[in-house]
Amino acid sequence: MAKIIVLDDLSEDGLNLLRSAANIEVEIRTGLKGDALKLALAESDGAICRSGVKITAESLQGNHRLKAIARAGVGVDNIDTKAATRQGIVVMNTPGGNTISTAEQTLALMYGLVRNIAPAHQSLVEGRWDRKKFMGTQLAGKTLGIVGLGRIGQAVASRAVAMEMRVIGYDPFVSAARAKELGVQLVGSPQELLPLVDILTVHTPLNEQTKNLISTKEILVMKKGVRLINCARGGIYDEAALVEGLKSGHLGGVALDVYGEEPCTNSPLFGMPNVLCTPHLGASTEEAQTNVAVEAAELLIDFFTTGAIKQSVNMSPLDPKTLESLRGYLNVAYRLGLLLAQGDHRSPTSCRMSYKGEVAKKDTRLLSQAFAAGLLAHAVQGVNIVNAEVLLRERGIELVEQRSTDIGDFSSLITAEVVSDEKTSSAAGTLFGNNMPRLVQKNGCRLESFLDGTLMIFIHRDMPGVIGSVGNIFGRHQVNIAQMAVGRPSNKPGGEAVGVLSLDSVPPAAALADILAMPQVTRAWTVKLPPAGELPSWLGG
Ligand code: NAD
Ligand code: MLT
Predict the structure, then answer these.
(1) Is the CB–ligand 2 distance for residue 10 below 6 Å?
(2) 536 domain-assigned
(3) Ligand 1, closest atom to CA 105?
(4) Which of 9, 163, 431, 500 is 20 to 30 Å from 108 at the Cα level?
(5) How many other C-beta atoms can be found within 10 angstroms of the C-beta atom of residue 292?
(6) Is residue 396 within 6 Å of ligand 1 at its C-beta?
(7) Per-residue pLDDT tens digits for 117-144
(8) In the predicted structure, residue 541 carries a pLDDT above the cut 80
(9) Are residues 248 and 352 in the same domain?
């Protein structure tokens, strides 16, 4: 008998499914934290939660019983998945079940904000018939900016188009063709979109790139009177900058469903004019809650009755033998994906994988999927070797491959290209020994570099003095260079060349600015890869 603990409120349909399953015992204990949570988890085989409970490393410490956690919802940011992986606990989520409801909440906030629904209602309840004070704005004809065109962003886009809004979107992993199908004008950066929009809504995960994506600097480049909506994650908008923007009148309104700290019952935004807030209700519809609860219950029932691992965000359901035989090359392909994701790609239309030599005899489909998992790793939560290709396809990006068993300069070579209408970025990697991934080509230039840690890649004119000057700049900024590789497309000097530096620390922005100021350098960027030897959780790391 497997004991499953329910840690947050869950729809009755999901609970009934669990209760009716053979060999499963259900205990409901919501609102747990600290030692009480730790003890409850230690006495359970499975757990099911929404976003209320925080399953931290401490709450899992020393737990030898818990095998699986199912998150009824998308975001797993309330679960320490690394700690869970270390302890062999499978974490699964249910993406998709609350997409439409969250998109509808976004539209509800948008309408509520531009038509002053909440304050007008309050004024009427208080006995006033004030028709002048609550003059609104029509949405049809206005421009909506969407940052993040994944499941929810796309659902918002198609609805906004139906509402006769003009929609402009930014997402580094959506093809122009998919955007066109949705009726969205795709731009290459949030900065391009900001000055054009009347309303902005964000639908990305909260991560290093999206934290404080919109702060005072960004607000000031937007139109005066712009309105901002957030039904994704608190922290994507800098809340202090929102207060400032509303006070100065630059912001015409703010509507939030999510907050930097949750639960949030005390914010300077609450009660300010032109602010509309809800307590994380995006997924709070009967339909969404039934969907995610039933899906999460099914995941746990399957896991405890058949051992099936589906929708896992931290473990691969592939059999361990296959994984073991491919581990080194899966790691190379994954790292190439991580590397190219951090370069300058704009609305890719396809990813082309080419396998040459010994590696071409292996299951290259899995390797291509590992590449896709690396490419999307920072953008999409819960991506792994199983779902990555589908996630690319949903964004209009094709994943194609070619194989040749001819041996070239390397006994095995994996080349990855991210292709967009404007340009193609490429990188190739191989495995030295059993487990030393190496970068051996970047943008057609042959070189030999580590494929781990912090790298700085710079494109420059191949002429004397460049490398010395780059070294001096890093010296001045106290950044130690661990290794340096330079390559050019042909053997002739003087053309465009690529340099890849392995650095012992992340260079400060000023160092990068100094490199970019060199007349011979056309582009330079930093890439962060996992340390040598570190594998993604689905690969047993
Ligand atoms: P998704 O993974 O389908 O889509 C996220 C998209 O963001 C991806 O297409 C990705 O490429 C894009 N992205 C990542 N980094 C980006 C960046 N720096 N700039 C632009 N785009 C970027 O996720 P989803 O299911 O659509 O969920 C979106 C967000 O909504 C998540 O944060 C999720 O946790 C949250 N959410 C909130 C509620 C709620 O109750 N308010 C409900 C469900 C989901
Ligand atoms: C999610 O990530 O699914 C949402 O934030 C909704 C929830 O909290 O369940």
Answers:
(1) no
(2) no
(3) 41
(4) 9
(5) 27
(6) no
(7) 999 999 999 999 999 999 999 999 999 9
(8) no
(9) no
